[in-house]
Amino acid sequence: MYFAYSHEPISCYFAHSARDFVVQEIPLYAFSGSGEHRILKVRKKSLSTFELLSIIAKAFNLPPKSIGYAGLKDKHATTTQYLSIPAKSTQNFHAIFERLAKDYEIKLLDSTLHSNKLRLGHLKGNRFFVRLKKLNPTNATKLESTFAHIAHNGFPNFFGFQRFGINGDNYLLGLSLSQRKNAQISPYLSLLAQLHPSLANPQNPLFHTKRYSRAMQEFFISSYQSFLFNGWLQARIQLSAWAREFSPKELQQLAQHYGKLESQDPLKSPTNLESTFAPSLETSLQSAQNACIATLCARFLQSLPKVALESLCAQPQAFTLLDGDLCCHYPYGKLFTLDSATQAECERFSQQGFSPTGALSGQNLKAPSTLAGQLEQSFLAPIPAPSSRRYAWVWASDVEYLYKPKLAQAELHFSLPSGAYATSFLEQVLKRSLAPNPPKQ
Fold it and tell me: Which residue among the candidates 20, 74, 323, 325 is catalytic per the annotation?
């Protein structure tokens, strides 16, 4: 986990549970009320979306792929989401859901008809409720101001820990599936494997994927895409932090300092101007990732002319723009290339006019140019799946905060665009990982 802001961590307790974490989908469009597909508004508890699909497919005697859904929802939460199933298969569907409610925490809230099957991404966003506990008045004051500040100024759109499975290693299965068709990997992962050798071991049982269904294999590949995106986004946050902390001259010194170290040992990487990271076989995966990111960022700085360094350091916002960034109007719109990160463009970005995008590696990828493309190249890999672009920076909206001092609890309400993780937002606010029992790798 990498943090975009410099405030101190906020102490409180987050129970990743159905009572304290509630999610409601916000549909992208109004349903027509007629058509060949039955739209089901379903509330579930303690079930993943895939588990929900499997249960409903079995209950209606349907193949799982015939059920449409707009987004994946957290298992450890109370979530309301929309599904679509062929209308011809929905005779007595109320009775079927009544039977399901006896065995599972599933409830049908509403239904209608529509002309099209729901597709992943057919979602405006999600509305969240989060309850935080064991929050004293001092930390409650910090939380209120930090929550409002980050909601207004935005946060890095990291994929949440849920994307990577219980042990955080789903991306390794996706890597294995990708390498069956192309052995090439990204420079980032190649360097990471040097620091963390188990990632390059084909005998690792994590690489055995034959027992999984096609749908799960596709999910593992998407996890691999997400892992590379998160690495790229961490690199952009690292560059932004260095640009705020150092002058252009100091950035040059940082790059030169790194160059001397790399000529002696290419696996050494600067974490600041005075110290270096020395990897070992016992290095944790997160430490190895941090070292790789610092290495790749320093290499990137070495290639920049003085005028580019000055442009980086002159930008006031938390996320630094790069010439050539492939951006998208926010919260919806078309992609466009940012030719130059001028002051006017920085202001437009800060006002939520657009956001840079990062790659989900795959086939027919539309890539950025010049400086942005140069950095992104280190995080791309040939993956046998469709490519896409994802917002690098997003904003929370419609935020509400309520502190209950007698209970030492805070209640947070907020909305996020489609694809953004509430847990990633909370991690930036609280400045700590929320992953349950993060694996020691």
Answer: 74
